[in-house]
Amino acid sequence: MIGRVIVGLLVGFMTLPTIVVVIASFNPTAILAFPPAGLSLRWYENALTYPQFRRAAVNSVIVTGASALLALPIGTAAALALVRHPLRGRGLWSAVFLSPLIIPGVAIGLGFLILAARFGLLANHAVLISAHTVLVLPFVIRSVAVSAANLDPQLERAAASLGARPGRVFRRVTLPLLRPGLFAALLFAVIVSVNEFVVSLFVSTRVTEILPVAMFTYVVNYTDPTMAALSTLFIGATFVAVFLTDRFLGLSGILHIEDHR
After folding, report:
1. Which positions ≥6 away from 13 have C-beta within 8 Å?
2. What are phi and psi of 41, to 5 degrees?
3. Residue span of the structural domain in which 165 resides
4. 149: CB partners within 8 A, 6+ apart
5. CB–CB of 205/122 below 8 Å?
6. 91 in a domain, yes or no?
7. Does residue 47 form part of some domain?
8. Residue 99: which pLDDT band, with cuts at 50, 70 and 90?
9. CB of 36 within 8 A of CB of 26?
10. What's the pTM?
11. CA–CA separation, 68 vs 140, rounded Å?
């Protein structure tokens, strides 16, 4: 009982700032204040029509889509290798693949900035896509690895014993069984990439900046509730994506989270 109360308090503490942002986004005045003096959707309209945000949103779609499509096959191959094959130095390889989770974003961003400047790629989407691929790769590997660990190898052996070649076994048996983990990996890759700011700030320019960087630039120059409105849209989209994934795919099963009630 006490544990549940503590967890509830922690969840409330973490959720409270989000609730304040959502409520403040409906403020009708040009000053960000809480509680709001009334209700208005003018800042949502400004967030959706501001030219810099629209350009940055297009860049976000390009970078997020490309990085997710690159990270998914790479992460799947890495997860299968780590889980199902007796690799030498498996712990070392696992640490290398998951290292973006513990290396500070400033260090990663600075490293990509130096490489991009060296090869003249600062004004190119390629450096942003590469950086985001590296950042989302651990989430892809983790999601697929859980599904791969729960996969019954007897099903693949049965298909092979019936004459299916390895490639056909992988396409017709392994991939369908990994589908929930692949969908979860894609979801996490998209969420992490869309919300990535620190590394993107280092390697983006005015032309290639993504939405979080454009939001930071806006905050530097303006103090109206537009940021609260745009943040609310981010929160809502993320919540809907996670809810639908859990509803139709079962995130608890994919991530091997047991219910102890």
Report:
1. none
2. -105, 15
3. 52-252
4. 83, 256
5. yes
6. yes
7. no
8. confident
9. yes
10. 0.80
11. 9
